[in-house]
């Protein structure tokens, strides 16, 4: 008997359909594993949200756990004459500032030449341009033979330490080289220039009165609390200890250097907001809707319970000092587990007792103050062996184990279906053979009946 190439041909039965049904039934065994993988992936995503919220809270605690925060100073400026910035060396104080003269750059123009792109330097040899400044210092610049006015300009500008910036100005008749001192101040002012060979043009040192082609640079002149100060530039450092004054215009301003209460207040507020965001994230992950039966991804999770327990322990605990608890600075724990700020109490602590506030949040070391304890607590939770990271790692390991189990199950199903296919093929052949035998016997009986009928 020849081999049957397709199931059911020999028997006439829908063996392929039956085999598909058996395979579907076998593959149902994979569904629980797929659901478990989906559950573990959901947990991993939820743990990631929890980690992000914890990290944000840790960042806010880090900001409060810096003693420099409570020592920082701010500058408040009245008037338009100056702006000011204070650094760590500044001291609280008030200053009346009068800007009499702004620092300016010196300028000097040349006499004119007919064209900017025609050679003006002797074609036979290079020349040296010597720039002279008000403090009698000089700078030499080599000009290539055959240079045009444009090339002279470019050569000057290509020399990074020439002390001037060069441009070309057309006065309506001729082209002039216009030089401007790179730095402000009297000493840095360009005052003259000369050539070693035949000069292609001269310095036009017309009246130095602010209206001519030659204008000397000036030093800034200002008065700080009655003390006259000169500066070669408009950024004045050192006139007031730890304060940089940026002169904006002639006129008067007041500068007050005082404790930066705004930075501290913002840091405390960020700490509270970050905790409340963390609490909100935990609430979403552990929620349960009794009407719909929908539950958060981490409802009843032991890692979340550990986080909440550790957070309550730190934030409701006490530290040594004038301020010992969050409630002492106007921060209270509400019935929903979130923090709330009493703005008046916090403002009073920030404005009048930053030393005690620093002792409360920072303490004597990085781990003794409230912020330090919070930071350490989060660091432990997020460490490799911490509750949150450990739970996430456990879910990842479960997925890996489930993947291996899924693969083994698939292989087993494939083997089972292969066995069924073989058995169905054998069944198909047997039935086909039986059908042939039945057909043969029927023919024989029919023939015998016919013979008996004739007799």
From TrEMBL:
Keyword line:
Bacterial flagellum, Cell projection, Cilium, Coiled coil, Flagellum, Secreted
The record's subcellular locations are: Secreted; Bacterial flagellum
What range(s) does the Flagellar hook-associated protein 2 N-terminal domain occupy? 11-104
Q: Which GO terms are recorded in the biological process aspect for this UniProt protein?
A: bacterial-type flagellum-dependent cell motility; cell adhesion
- Residue ranges of every copy of the Flagellar hook-associated protein 2 C-terminal domain listed in the record: 217-436
InterPro entries attached here?
Flagellin_hook_IN_motif, FliD, FliD_C, FliD_N
Question: Could you confirm whether the keyword 4Fe-4S appears in this record?
Answer: no
User: What are the annotated GO cellular component locations?
Assistant: bacterial-type flagellum filament cap; bacterial-type flagellum hook; extracellular region
Main localization is: secreted
Explain the purpose of this protein: Required for morphogenesis and for the elongation of the flagellar filament by facilitating polymerization of the flagellin monomers at the tip of growing filament. Forms a capping structure, which prevents flagellin subunits (transported through the central channel of the flagellum) from leaking out without polymerization at the distal end.
Q: How does it assemble?
A: Homopentamer.
Family the UniProt entry places it in: Belongs to the FliD family.
Q: What is this protein called?
A: Flagellar hook-associated protein 2
